[in-house]
Amino acid sequence: MDFDFTWLLWGLPLAFALGWIASRLDLRQWRIEGRQAPKAYFRGLNHLLNEQQDQAIDAFIEAVQGDPDTAELHFALGNLFRRRGDYDRAVRVHEHLLSRADIGRKERDRAQHALALDFLKAGLLDRAETALHRLEGSAYEAEALLALLSIYERSRDWPQAKVIAEKLETAEQGSFSNRLAHYLCEEAEQAVRTGDTEKALKLLNDAVARAPQLARGWLALSSLKSQAGQPDAAFNALRELQKQAPSAMPLAARSLADLARQTGRLDEARQLLTISDQRAPSIDVTEALASLCEDREIARTQYLTHLGRESSLVLAAQWLAGEQFSNPAAQAPVQTALAQASMPLKRYRCAACGFEAQQHFWHCPGCQTWDSYPARRVEEL
Questions:
Q1: Per the annotation, does 367 bind a ligand?
Q2: Does pTM top 0.70 for this prediction?
Q3: Is residue 256 assigned to a domain?
Q4: What is the pLDDT of residue 261?
Q5: Is 350 annotated as a binding residue?
Q6: What is the CATH number of the domain that holds 258?
């Protein structure tokens, strides 16, 4: 049977027409989806501006589904998850970005940095540490080193903290001499607890050589010398502190007075404390000067001299303790009330976050800031 070419003549135009219609339908669908994705993106931005994080996340998820190849949408979505505290989903988003082969080095480093932040916020310090080490040599290296430094400080890994601080100082990210000296002092405290005083002494000598202006090194060195039965050497360390960090003398005043009595260097101690008192009156310095006075009335004069320059409820209560009340029965309750009222004024306060404590801290337990506690009491600030 002969083949009828008439059907072929009709079929070719028909196939062309159907293909054209199909392509137009695909193009229309693509345009619709292309318009929907930006709408979802801008809707998400609007929710963000209105601080509606849940709705913004839903909008960005819709936008990502419409355009899964856009890395910026993934970054926005991951950051939103992190801000909301949904760390598992933030980690999945950023790990997905890292698994893609079509993103460049810049975006890959950015995703690695975001992943490290996810782990940090989630408190997964070991995984954060690994992620941060992978940023070495990237544009985020300085930020990664600072984050690593924070991790090692929180975990009290002082040798590793020293390594990172030295890298930051080499990279000209600021001066870390004080922090490095603090790390040496921390290591010295650990050595003292284990009974290795020789190592502690070496560490403290390194600390004062690296940062002579840091009071902590001299105070720790004096304490170690005193424990070793060397009161003269301990006194000399505090005398050096008065030269290098005079504003920290209130922290050393009581120890200086005790060492002066042990060594018989009372006049020298009075001179050092008087110089500090003339520079800036201090409750602790005044108490130390009073303790070095053999005559009780002269000691009480020290309190009055301070009160004439600066009012102080703490010292006023101590002065009144030596007064004879016309009604002796009233002295005990009045003295108790004054002691309770002045107790909060004896605290130390962090200048960075306001955290108050009975003892002086070199590293604030509240905000983790170094050297944020003044040497003076709350009443004197």
A1: yes
A2: yes
A3: yes
A4: 93
A5: yes
A6: 1.25.40.10
